[in-house]
Amino acid sequence: xxxxxxxxxxxxxxxxxxxxxxxxxxxxxxxxxxxxxxxxxxxxxxxxxxxxxxxxxxxxxxxxxxxxxxxxxxxxxxxxxxxxxxxxxxxxxxxxxxxxxxxxxxxxxxxxxxxxxxxxxxxxxxxxxxxxxxxxxxxxxxxxxxxxxxxxxxxxxxxxxxxxxxxxxxxxxxxxxxxxxxxxxxxxxxxxxxxxxxxxxxxxxxxxxxxxxxxxxxxxxxxxxxxxxxxxxxxxxxxxxxxxxxxxxxxxxxxxxxxxxxxxxxxxxxxxxxxxxxxxxxxxxxxxxxxxxxxxxxxxxxxxxxxxxxxxxxxxxx
Length: 318
Ligand code: ACO
What we know:
The chain is of the alpha/beta class. It has 2 domains: about 5-170, 3-Layer(aba) Sandwich (Peroxisomal Thiolase, Chain A, domain 1), CATH 3.40.47; about 175-315, Peroxisomal Thiolase, Chain A, domain 1, CATH 3.40.47.10. About 30% of the residues lie in helices and about 25% in strands. It has helices spanning about 20-25, 30-40, 50-65, 90-100, 115-130, 150-155, 210-230, 250-260, 270-275, 280-290, and strands spanning about 5-10, 15-20, 40-45, 75-80, 105-110, 135-140, 160-170, 175-180, 190, 205-210, 240-245, 300-305, 310-315. The strands form 4 sheets. A 5-stranded mixed sheet has the order 1-7-6-4-5, sandwiched between helices. Strand 4 (about 75-80), helix 4 (about 90-100) and strand 5 (about 105-110) form a beta-alpha-beta unit. The radius of gyration is 18 Å and the shape is globular. Acetyl coenzyme *A (ACO) binds near residues 113, 156, 217 and 251.
């Protein structure tokens, strides 16, 4: 078995829905600005006591069911998250315990909004080298807990949720290629500056220079699309579906234009979910699989850009 392929997908959103109009009551914003500048209409937010691992578990159970395997068949558990329940154990270890799995490697991977594509790359490499046969890859976030709810430049943009994929070893791809990048030089444009490690635990809220991030995201995602197509000797018309990270509809439209893809061929969830960071791609993927848009045999391009900066893509024959 030389490759990995997607056996099943799952996702979960918290039940509490917060609309743009609801936000007008808590911060100086207006619903029309949010919709026109971002495409976001609403987001799902966790309630008190609801954790990242709760979301991850619900998504993981659906993905296992769709894959037709038992949790005990897993030999790798990866959770991409920026909002773990605790410093340690990792959310992946907490999830492993909930799934009653024992012994296989389980770890979190933190690449903010690019976390899911990073985790898919790592899981694919475990499977290609024979180190794993069945990998659970989850993107799960309670990003609302990192937000300063008085900062209208960030708090209106994000939502909570989780998506999951079960990968299995296969003779044919599956995951055709993955492309990862990072550049820490851009730290000041998008960060949560505080942490116990730098003695500033009180500064644990997101800061973003939104319009600078926007400009760099558009050009960088254009480059990652080119890189992915060139590496595989593909043309734009070979892509059946674009499954982008869902930060802003204008960023998504720019990438679709770059690919000459009509928006009907782009999976868009940003209106309902907002930006759910590492959960946004697997949430969108699962939605389009379950409603029948994405079919077996089609070619899917996932791409993401986020804090770090980190960015990357995953090309899949579904
Ligand atoms: N409601 C009303 N007005 C607002 C709001 C708001 N929520 N937020 C900003 N404004 C105002 C600003 O104050 C500014 O007013 P001014 O002209 O009087 O100063 C005006 O709107 C324009 O502000 P900009 O920041 O220039 O607006 P822009 O069109 O760039 O949109 C946005 C802002 C939506 C944040 C956009 O820049 C964006 O999407 N950036 C990229 C975000 C992203 O992709 N992040 C990476 C992934 S996230 C991660 O990794 C955690």
